[in-house]
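Quick check before the chapter quiz. The format below is the same one you will see on the exam, so make sure you can read both the input and the output lines.
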Amino acid sequence: MNRRIHILTVVSIWSFVITTASAQLSLVVQFEPLPSPYISDWRSHPNTIRFILTNPTGTPVTGRLKAYIEGDIRGRVAETKLNAKIQPITVPPGTSTFNAVDARFIEEGAIRYIGPTKDETKRTGRLPEDHFRICAQFVAYHDPYSPLSNESCATFEIHFLLPPSLITPSDTAIVQSLPVFQWSFVPLFMGEFTKYELKIVELEPGQKNPQDAILTNIPLLVRETDLPMYAYLPSDPPLEKGKTYAWRVQAFHPDSRFVFAKRGLSETWSFTYMPTIPPSIKTEEQTGGNTGTSDEIWERKRPSN
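Here is the expected output.
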């Protein structure tokens, strides 16, 4: 009877030890809601993801993170390799925050890509479009990787940003003064801003397709701007009367942290430049070979007394 009680006591104590060890740390995962789809960017911008670990034991605890990324549509697309030869993570007493680099989460060889998109993700280093959740748990460093914390999850989205839409001058417009080009604003987030490149080319004689022209002709003007507009300046290369021009805008991020659908390229529109002649300026044909303002011509033609 005493032997039985002793065995039950040992089992109870062992179970308590295992339970305590498996839940001794508290983990919270935080993630930017719209991160770069390139996992390598999480290394250069390590605060994209944060692992907040609270250690109430009073002594440092060593282990590693076990994590996976799962999409609503594509299912599980990536997971950590628990046998990867990475440095262990030591969590001191109290609350500590680890970013992607601190947590050895994205070190070379630490992630395995899985699922139907694994080949594309391995080739491009980019997650596909989806609504994802990342779940992580702090576990023992060695096999069998016993859990040392709760599992915590955070959600994020990967989607390609729409390219800008052209607004004005409208397609095939007749432009009578130096044009002001406008297109739709492409929003990012958290203090990030889209940059835009405006490209204008002249259509060659007999060339009818603006898209072909924008792809093959020598640019008349290429300008980068932070605003969704550009006012053509008198100092820019001159536009010729009667000529037709094609124009297009490309949105991009200077650090390439964001992916744009269609490489950020808008549609291609055209316009024809037909400036009006101010009333005070006449052509030689209209003035009989005399040029200048109306008053100047009249003064020259007025009979002398």
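If your answer matched, good. The helical segments are 2-22, 41-44, 118-124, 210-216, 294-301.
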